[in-house]
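Hi there. Long-time user, first ticket. I'm pasting a complex I've been working with (about 676 residues overall). I'd like to know whether the download I got is complete or cut off, because the file seemed smaller than I expected. Thanks.
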Amino acid sequence: MSVTGRPTSRDVARVAGVSQATVSLVLGGKWRGRVSERTAAAVRTAADELGYRPNLAARSLRLGQTRTALLVVPALTHEYFARIYTGAARVAAEHGFGVVLYPSPAGIGPAPDPFGSARAAIDGVIASSMAADALSGIGDGGLPLVMLDSEPAPAGGAPTVNLAVADGIRQVTRHLLGLGHRRFAHIAADVDTWTFRVRTETVAAELAGVDGVRLRTERCALDVEAARAAARRALGGPGPRPTVLLCDGDVLAAGACKAARGLGLRVPQDLSVSGFDDLALATALDPELTSVALPAEEVGAAGMSALLALLAGSPVVPAELPVELVVRSSTAPPPPSP
Amino acid sequence: MSVTGRPTSRDVARVAGVSQATVSLVLGGKWRGRVSERTAAAVRTAADELGYRPNLAARSLRLGQTRTALLVVPALTHEYFARIYTGAARVAAEHGFGVVLYPSPAGIGPAPDPFGSARAAIDGVIASSMAADALSGIGDGGLPLVMLDSEPAPAGGAPTVNLAVADGIRQVTRHLLGLGHRRFAHIAADVDTWTFRVRTETVAAELAGVDGVRLRTERCALDVEAARAAARRALGGPGPRPTVLLCDGDVLAAGACKAARGLGLRVPQDLSVSGFDDLALATALDPELTSVALPAEEVGAAGMSALLALLAGSPVVPAELPVELVVRSSTAPPPPSP
DNA sequence: TTGTAGGCGTTATCAT
DNA sequence: ATGATAACGCCTACAA
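Hi, the file is complete. Here it is re-exported in full:
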């Protein structure tokens, strides 16, 4: 027995009456034609009896790798990241890898050092939707890095796996324009992240060329209450009232709906509201939100695949995954102009 | 340089012109009066220059411990577990520990073996709100274990940190009874877990003794759509319509609200709805939900403290943390009887 | 005040 | 077909 109280491969060897090397061979599954069937069986029996589990620390030390990836996410709460994890973990498991989550403490929280607080030994890092300045602690460390949902790298940088966010926004705006809307308010997340920068830019760009369109933008933090206040400002502001609140996320859309109700406006008859992300929240609300569905699980899977390729030294091609507009009941033609 | 391409303590020693032992002493912070200031400074400079990071695998192997705890949760999506993690991570950090998350694949998913798939080497396990049968893979392994939100152990078993769930339900029922409600429907989560069993039992127990009270129970899966269907059944069923839907969670309450609206019932004028957990969802909905707030972060913190005590061999006292009813706008007196 | 040496549990290379 | 042996990088008696 080892110092930790757990049986070691030595113990297994002794019980089975063989050498440590043989145990390693058998349990490592690479004994075909090197160890007799009988011996192999004996080894497995002994290991079972003792409840032997290989010591991961020792294995990592010997192998120089841990077969573990670190997934850095900005917030656990968001169901989006849970799905990213699921996809990444699936692909990882298929390759004998594990995934350890590190919820990056945005501002407050534990040390901003993934390698200190997520103490696990790591072969590579997948960073998702990180703020521009939150990368500092990750960029160095010299570990292979894949970025999800981030500014495409200038070649030579970390490979990226992105969503077609711009296309998603385009689908939303065209849907709304098609319904007849011309007076837009954009409830924009006040977060310095590639994905949100793209959203804001694309809304403006798409609406810029259209005749008679007015666009007002209100920025707010990424929570319901802030969004309610922002929507309130947009609806109460000077000039003709917007007929639609285009929101950067479902959470913001929830706030927008509350603001509308607070003003006695019915959604969608008096005011249309659109979301983004297509979280469970989108269908928890009433009316259900028109939103843009993101293939989050596939993003996670593609990210893990990219990291695996990186670790194997293969070339990695940046990917962009398609998104899809889901029309529900929160959007409708604008009310007749007074 | 090591085989992994990363600088080792040997490299630091060479650059600083000292021995490995000295490096270890200095970087381990235990050199007071054993190494001269000058040498210590030299070591730190060298380590900085090289970007030295100690190899965790080697350290774990030598020390026989990893200073890492595994937190097993049934679902990442739930904001409740994100908060558990936050609390656990905070206490862990204060003691030089790390926390690795393992989202237990409920039924489907990767291997049900935390020690295989969450490959990190682990000193102990904290399991939160696990289904009764999901413990099998965890119970063995011989690792110190703390259970959160689970059946109190029969002494000698794993220590538990629990919420005063029964008291929370009691607060809700009394609030509703106080408003004048007598015809109850309980929208219960169809999940075989201590916390939900207690909720169901307590609702029944609290309402049992009260004159003229009718209770109907509808079970459903833990999602909005299932809850909507269950609420629909409860409202459409035979006999006089319930005046209140008491829900096992905010997610279920969201579904209940949708069912109400679908039937043209106003919340709370025609029908009261109460939630549980007090998630962000509770205030994202309109009207905002009356719910029961759970000190999730403190549960996580207490769980980690208990595990730390366990590892230190100290006695651990089971804890039960208080919960608090939050009255919002989804509950009101019942409509006058026809 | 600093250096030497041994071993943690594993895998891989070489003998036998 | 199997066994002895040498690392992997770190920590810590003990020696100098």
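A couple of notes from our side: Chain B touches chain A through 61 residues (CB under 8 Å). Chain B has 13 helices and twelve strands.
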